[in-house]
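Try it yourself: sequence plus magnesium ion, in.
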Amino acid sequence: MASEKPHMNLAVIGHIDHGKSTTVGRMMFETGAVPAHIIEGYRKEAESKGKATFEFAWVMDNLKEERERGITIDIAHKRFDTPKFYFTVVDCPGHRDFVKNMITGASQADAAILVVAAPDGVMEQTKEHVFLARTLGISQIIIAINKMDAVKFDEKRFNEVKKDLSDLIKMVGYKPEETLFIPISALGGQNIKVNSPEMSWYKGLPLITALDTFKTPDKPTDKPLRLPIQDVYSISGIGTVPVGRVETGIMKKGMKVSFMPANKDGEIKSIEMHHEEIPQAVPGDNVGFNVRGIGKGDIRRGDVCGPADSPPTVADEFTAQIVVLQHPSALTVGYTPVFHCHTAQTACTFVELKKKLDPRSGQTKEENPTFLKTGDAAIVVIKPTKPMVIETVKELPQLGRFAVRDMGSTIAAGMCIAIQPKQMR
Ligand SMILES: Nc1nc2c(ncn2[C@@H]2O[C@H](COP(=O)(O)OP(=O)(O)OP(=O)(O)O)[C@@H](O)[C@H]2O)c(=O)[nH]1
Ligand SMILES: [Mg+2]
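Structure, out:
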């Protein structure tokens, strides 16, 4: 059923085990997207496998390994509706080994729910995810302080965690005074659909109602089409079906498209969203589409689809503004970590450190610094080790932000401000 409601991509982020998947499963249940008998089936199965209490998480965690280990590994998309929106929810993994999957999820989101367990409070990936959400361009966030049952629904503990979170989000540029903090129990269902008597001290909105306070994201339909490929399927009887989210522009049936940096051309034969054929896809739509003239091996995750007459930009080099989140020693010219940009993951070399900036004012602190340390902001020149698509933040912000990772942690995040393009044809 095609929906008239605006569409939102919602990422659910936060530290491992804080209850993200359970919160999503619970919201799907309370909005009727998952029927009670399915949850009951999961409850019995989880219990018999020694995984009691994971019934709601299993709505999202479908992989065998996820269920056995009781953690989320890959991102999963599910749909549910509120009175105002229909949401595609992207459940992210909290485990530190899978932050790269979280980045892919966050890069597709218009808004986020940050889940923080009340007993633990702010933890390592709480901080990392907040930083990444902000630098990947998620401007709207709601905070769910979960597992309130485990702290006896205590208002004092809620306020402590809320205070720590306010400080954290303020540091990266969210406004705590405009952010909703909601005490919930995803497992017990408190403050999810209606306010619960156990927390009568809480006078704010329950979680599902709070989601309708999000503002509809702008749809940059006047820009050229950009759709970063997330996966490519080969479906018998149909052909090659890339999937991904439209970031800018409009994809229409019959359109001639180019995939970069693969440098392959094709024609859009059909477009599907949530298993229904649609005539066109607009920004925010997560779609699968069939392309004439493209084989499964021709394109892969990280390629970007655009109009044949205005193809995505492949960078030979680019200039970026970055903030160093954490680096064990000093970051110097020659350093080659992995850049995560839209759905691409490409090793890139720092070829020049142009200037160090004051992170608050943006004023130059030092020309041509010899190294950068944790906390520094800088303008740098980056050279990808293989062709990659990136756009300037000014023209196409959705494709201009990136995270820099090395040895399992996020080193920096930033945005592209100028490109030396590579001639592709
Ligand atoms: N007491 C209590 N336990 C909860 C609540 N919500 C989740 N849990 C439990 O916390 C554990 C982890 O829940 P998940 O939903 O898998 O956590 P997650 O954040 O998705 O974990 P990752 O995806 O691996 O990062 C499970 O045992 C849940 O039953 C809650 O509201 N109260
Ligand atoms: Mg999970």
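One thing you can check immediately is this: The two ends are 42 Å apart (CA to CA).
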